Amino acid sequence: MDAPLEEIEFLARSTNRVEVLQLLATRPHTRGELAATTEASQATLGRILEDFSERSWVTREGDTHVATATGALVADGIDEFVAVLETEGKLRDVVAYLPTDAFGFDLRDLADATVTVPTRTRPSAPLQRVLDGMERATTVRAVSHTLNEQSLTTAHRRVTAGRQTFEAVLSSSTLEALAADDELWTRVRALADHDDAVIRVARAAVPLSVTVVDGTVYLLVRDERGILRAAIHTDDSTVRDWADETVSRYWEEATPLDPTTFETGSGGAS
């Protein structure tokens, strides 16, 4: 185990080493081309190429240097490791709140995702990120354990204006909370009565909040107290396939919304 770790340390001690190996894995380069790209001195490049040659990572072909098959293998590994660490860095502050047990994808699939967290100056930044997506969307499909006033208002306005179709599976607890507010419940009923919107009720608890806005997936991340910690959005095809399948599965298992079951005096929520 020590030898691989020593090689990792050898590469990690110098960004020039990493950059040179990655460059040579893409195509042959002369030493002059390497110097122009990396801005490393000729002496530094000489030492790097000699070290790589001793490891059989690089070979010389005329005036150019090129990565061997094992050199290219190491370069690919570096790229993957860097990508993993970049993804980990994005998720580090919110990983404790991620419902990873419900994810049907690898966290590596979030490599290109954008993670929006609250700040002192923009405490509502995660929610605003989702609202911005909904504001431009023609189709919205969601399964969620919550529906806040802003999202409801945006969906209601867009749907009634004929600019959006809206489908959502909501937990019973979410609908009970909305029914307790006359103004919000009136909006829910108006939305559900529209031809371009359908709301269904989940049969069981919903552990996550997934919204597919046209082709983009938004994940709202909350802590155990229900406080919004982040919004993650991505266009990754694997995550989108998972999100589509998740929404469809909840949709098939859910029941149509009967507003009267959540209204006072009808045997529902009070």
Features:
three-stranded antiparallel β-sheet; alpha+beta; disordered C terminus; Arc Repressor Mutant, subunit A; Endonuclease, Chain A; eight-stranded mixed β-sheet
Approximate helicity band: 40-55%
Biggest beta sheet attributes: 8 strands, mixed
Order of helices and strands: HHEHHEEHEHEHEHHEEEEHE
Which spans have pLDDT < 50 for at least 5 consecutive residues?
266-270
Number of helices: 10
> What integer value in Å does the Rg equal?
26 Å
Which term fits the overall shape?
Answer: elongated
- What share of residues are in beta strands? 15-25%
Spatial order of strands in the largest sheet: 4-10-9-8-5-6-7-11
Quote the CATH topology of the largest domain. Endonuclease, Chain A
What do we call the CATH homologous superfamily of the largest domain?
Endonuclease Chain A
> SS-based structural class?
alpha+beta
Mean pLDDT: 93
Second CATH tier, the architecture of the largest domain: 2-Layer Sandwich
Strand tally = 11
The CATH class of the largest domain: Alpha Beta
Distance between the termini: 63 Å
